[in-house]
Specification:
Blueprint: E1 3-13, E2 19-25, E3 27-28, H1 31-41, H2 45-51, H3 59-64, E4 66-70, E5 89-93, E6 108-109, E7 115-117, E8 122-129, E9 136-144, H4 189-193, E10 195-200, E11 205-212, E12 215-222, E13 239-246, E14 260-265, E15 270-276, E16 286-293, E17 299-305, E18 328-330, E19 333-337, E20 353-357, E21 365-367, E22 379-381, E23 384-387, E24 396-400, E25 405-409, E26 421-423, E27 433-437, E28 444-448, E29 457-467, E30 471-481
Antiparallel strand pairs: 1-2, 1-30, 3-29, 4-5, 4-9, 6-8, 7-8, 8-30, 9-29, 10-11, 11-12, 12-13, 14-15, 15-16, 16-17, 18-19, 19-20, 20-21, 22-23, 23-24, 24-25, 26-27, 27-28
């Protein structure tokens, strides 16, 4: 359904009373369309139209009601559904919520002037920002999911406030309870097939990876969303094809499920295997990484001594779970955590972090952690690594690979000790699968989900406007149902 959006920004100088007004129409991205068509139409459209995403939330409010303000233009490509890591967040907003916390990015929802009129096809979201909030250059105004505004970023710890705690940051009521990759009796997909790396809608399958001795085993498992297999046993998934790769020259003598891990680099579109010589990893100890082009399986191998000058954790985690923070490849760079003794997720200790370019490890860089801990990694895409919080380890954080810093965010999933981690869907970044890692059994469960800080609209201003500490700001964003 086509929609049209319009933004109005009002900046009021608190000393002179002067009001600066900026107005502009917006671009609607493909993010929401991706959600409803992801993995060959996994969303339950009848349920969504009848009940919204959650009880009491109309779909326009739920899927478009949040606000994200950036310091640079984001472009006019409708497939841009996440901001690049170079774009700094200046302000955010969450529908129905005021900012009573200590974050200086998020404004307050204006309940009086906002209006959700789905019958007549017009919704208006109004956000107010105090003199202390959203200060800086604003070049792009974007709508996002109602939870997207909680992905504000701060160099200081953010206390949970105003509904930021939620177990719904990953899964969504838009999708029914059916599991595209059902368990066999007494087992889970992860114990059957290994770690899910990504789903491919074109092939109607998910790729699972497992370490088997000195081999990397890749299993292509059908999703059965575009065909009916009369001979597929009830409650099971079907392996269509198996690839076996010898990685004995990558694994060190101690290489096992603790010292060797397999993963998927979503930004470089590569499968990778990482192996460490020992744990902890001293500056004289070595790391090997092999990458495989997803499409061609062309391989490259990198071997280097620990270039950080410090001890690293070294245990990279095998093929399950997909949570360990001690070795992750994104955008062709290895991100590793420094060594601390007695790591405990219930009482995490501060760890240094490092960025190691695989092509030239000598260009290693330290990550500025701002005194913040990154206990686990639940997602990694578009130049950022995310921790969504957990039952024991506090509010969310994000590692920006370009600015090389760890920042706090209000988004906080406190529903489980090990919340869901993301499994990308190719060509559909807004709606990945979510893997629930169950402690201590090690079993996993996959279900469709949403990355909540997507860009539903992009409104690049004709010229940036500056919000300063002597000004308040009101942003009015109107969406209208357009003619078919």
């Amino acid at each position: 359904m086509p929609i049209h959006g319009h933004t109005k920004i009002e900046l009021t100088n608190q000393t002179t009373g002067e009001v600066e007004v900026v107005e502009k129409d917006n671009l609607v991205t493909n993010a929401v369309a991706q959600i409803f068509t992801s993995f060959n139409g996994g969303a339950n459209l009848r349920t969504a139209n009848a009940g919204g995403e959650y009880t009491g939330w109309e779909l326009p409010e739920s899927l478009y009601g949040g606000l994200l303000l950036y310091d640079r233009a984001l472009g006019s490509d409708p497939d841009t559904v996440f901001a690049p890591p170079e774009a700094r967040l200046v302000g955010t907003g969450v529908p129905r919520m005021s900012n009573t916390g200590n974050g200086v990015l998020r404004g307050s929802y204006n309940k009086i002037e906002s209006n959700i009129d789905v019958k007549n096809g017009v919704v208006t979201f109004v956000y107010d920002f105090a003199t202390s909030q959203a200060n800086g250059m604003i070049a792009s105004v974007c709508l996002t999911h109602r939870y997207g505004g909680y992905f504000d970023e701060s160099a200081a710890a953010l206390a949970e406030a105003d509904g930021a705690r939620s177990g719904q940051y990953q899964y969504s009521g838009l999708f029914d309870g059916a599991k595209p990759f059902p368990r066999a009796p007494g087992q889970s997909d992860t114990t059957l097939f290994g770690r899910p790396l990504y789903a491919d809608p074109e092939s109607d399958e998910m790729l699972f990876a497992a370490l088997d001795g000195t081999n990397l085993v890749l299993r292509h498992v059908t999703g059965l969303t575009t065909e009916l297999d009369l001979f597929n046993p009830v409650g099971t998934s079907r392996v269509k094809n198996i690839e076996t790769m010898d990685i004995s020259d990558v694994m060190y003598a101690k290489g096992d499920g603790y010292y060797t891990a397999v993963g998927y680099d979503a930004d470089a579109d590569q499968i990778y295997v990482i192996s460490t010589e020992c744990a902890p990893l001293k500056p004289t100890d070595h790391i090997r990484v092999r990458t495989y082009d997803r499409k061609t399986r062309a391989a490259k191998t990198y071997e280097f001594a620990n270039p950080t000058g410090a001890q690293l954790m070294g245990g990279v985690g095998g093929d399950t779970p997909l949570l360990r923070n001690t070795g992750r490849v994104l955008g062709g760079c290895l991100y590793v955590a420094g060594y601390v003794s007695d790591v405990s997720y219930s009482a995490p200790k501060l760890q240094p972090f490092y960025k190691i370019p695989l092509a030239d490890p000598s260009k290693v860089e330290s990550i500025d952690n701002h005194g913040l801990m990154l206990p686990m990694i639940h997602d990694a895409h578009d130049g950022k690594l995310y921790y969504y919080g957990s039952l024991y380890a506090g509010y969310g954080r994000v590692l920006n690979t370009v600015t090389k810093e760890i920042l706090a965010m209000e988004a906080f999933n406190d529903a489980d000790r090990y919340p869901y981690c993301c499994v990308p869907v190719l060509g559909c970044p807004a709606a990945p699968f979510m893997l629930q890692y169950a402690y201590p059994s090690g079993e996993g469960e996959l279900r469709q989900g949403i990355r909540r800080n997507y860009l539903a609209t992009i409104n690049d201003l004709a010229a940036p406007v500056e919000k300063t500490a002597d000004k308040t700001m009101k942003i009015t964003y109107t969406l209208r149902k357009a003619a078919e």
